[in-house]
Design a protein that fits this description.
Length: about 160
């Protein structure tokens, strides 16, 4: 019997995993996920956006607008950062799969931890300065990045 030919690629597999872990986020407006994978296609870290460990989800604001201290932006740990913090092996030479193109702060974390490739699903904030800075950082540090376009129609069901 010949092997199956309609199996998903590694990119599709890890992109779907990033989308799946994003569903753990309590953020009412943006659910982001990230998966770090080594060159043997082994997951070494996963993360989603949320407040730091030990802080209840109701203790801080989820607002997107207002004074800085009254918004989530002062408190949320991004998915990429959490994937690095949660890694169970060295991330040097790894690839990170993300649901969103990383912001400049996450770009610095990715670079400092030796991750050499970023595969992202969405770049919806492409023209904003924070993301332009990310591309500038990645380009200068030699981190490659590419948008993943699914080959199959597999998608996680959202409510």
């Amino acid at each position: 019997m010949p092997k199956r030919t309609d199996y998903i690629s590694w990119d599709e597999c890890f992109s779907l995993m990033a989308e799946l872990i994003a569903q753990r986020s309590k953020d009412p407006s943006t659910q982001a996920g990230a998966v770090i994978v080594n060159d043997q296609h082994v997951v070494v870290g996963m993360g989603y956006n949320g407040f730091p460990r030990g802080i209840e989800d109701e203790e801080l604001p989820w607002e997107r607008e207002g004074k800085f201290l009254d918004t989530k932006y002062a408190y949320v740990v991004h998915a990429e950062e959490n994937a690095v913090y949660n890694s169970n092996a060295k991330t040097k030479g790894c690839t990170i799969y993300t649901t969103l193109f990383p912001c400049n702060e996450c770009a610095k974390t990715i670079i400092q931890n030796g991750i050499t490739e970023v595969v992202y699903a969405s770049d919806k904030y492409h023209d904003q300065d924070i993301w332009a800075a990310s591309r500038k950082l990645f380009d200068r540090a030699g981190v490659t990045y590419r948008q993943f376009v699914p080959e199959h129609s597999l998608k996680l069901q959202k409510k």
